């Protein structure tokens, strides 16, 4: 059986254009405004002041993870957004990779750490999805936040309630937003 070649592969002009022409735009960049919104939300002082989220590298990672989880949970409602969800997760991974390198983590270790972070994020996404799906499951969300967001810190009930209430509020704000508007970064939340 003969392998059919794509006529585009045989065209020398097309080959030269691919080799020396401008690079194809990165489709993930369309999700950059949304990712920037997530990071901006995670930097809001109330999380760290009223909510007592530890203002550390881990605490900030956990806050970005929690808000990214809210956005992914919202986008899951629409199967057409599956690619956007994948791209958004890739942007998150690239950002975490860059942050680790900035802190001086060597090339040999970065991949392993990213793998662990991504695995941890998957667990958090599942925990937040389950806890936020049932508005009556306040204890479930509180447990997920204590375990993930606070880790070694012990928040007061008021601090924990602040974070849980704000996450539920943001979840409610995101629910009616058109997924395409959210993915493009056009929605303000």
How many strand segments?
Answer: 0
% residues in beta strands? under 5%
Quaternary state of this entry equals single chain
Domains (count): 1
Report the major sheet: none
Stretches with pLDDT under 50, minimum 5 residues: none
Helix- and strand-based class?
A: mainly alpha
Compute the average pLDDT.
86
Radius of gyration, in Å, reads 20 Å
Order of helices and strands: HHHHHHHHHH
- Give the termini distance in whole angstroms: 56 Å
Number of helices: 10
Share of helix, binned = over 70%
Q: Which descriptor suits the 3D outline?
A: globular
Description:
The termini are far apart. The mean pLDDT is 86. α3 packs across α5. This protein is an all-alpha fold. The protein has one domain (30-184). The protein has ten helices and no strands.
Short description:
Helix content is 70%, strand content 0%. The chain has 189 residues and is an all-alpha fold. It has one domain (30-184).
Give the topology, please:
Elements: H1 7-10, H2 12-20, H3 32-42, H4 45-48, H5 57-76, H6 82-102, H7 107-133, H8 138-150, H9 157-174, H10 179-184
Helix pairs in contact: 3-5, 5-6, 5-7, 5-9, 6-7, 7-8, 8-9
List keywords for this structure.
single chain; globular; 10 helices
């Amino acid at each position: 059986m003969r392998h059919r070649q794509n006529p585009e592969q045989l065209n020398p002009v097309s080959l030269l254009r691919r080799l020396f022409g401008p690079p194809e735009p990165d489709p993930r960049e369309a999700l950059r405004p949304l990712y920037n919104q997530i990071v901006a939300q995670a930097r809001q002082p109330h999380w760290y002041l009223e909510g007592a989220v530890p203002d550390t590298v881990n605490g900030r990672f956990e806050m970005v993870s929690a808000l990214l989880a809210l956005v992914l949970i919202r986008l899951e409602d629409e199967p057409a957004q599956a690619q956007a969800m994948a791209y958004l997760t890739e942007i998150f991974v690239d950002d975490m990779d860059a942050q680790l390198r900035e802190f001086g983590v060597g090339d040999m270790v970065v991949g392993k750490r990213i793998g662990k972070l991504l695995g941890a994020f998957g667990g958090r996404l599942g925990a937040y999805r389950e806890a936020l799906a049932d508005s009556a499951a306040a204890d479930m969300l509180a447990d997920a936040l204590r375990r993930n967001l606070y880790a070694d810190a012990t928040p007061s009930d008021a601090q924990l309630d602040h974070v849980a209430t704000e996450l539920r509020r943001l979840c409610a704000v995101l629910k009616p937003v058109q997924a395409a508007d959210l993915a493009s970064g056009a929605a303000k939340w």
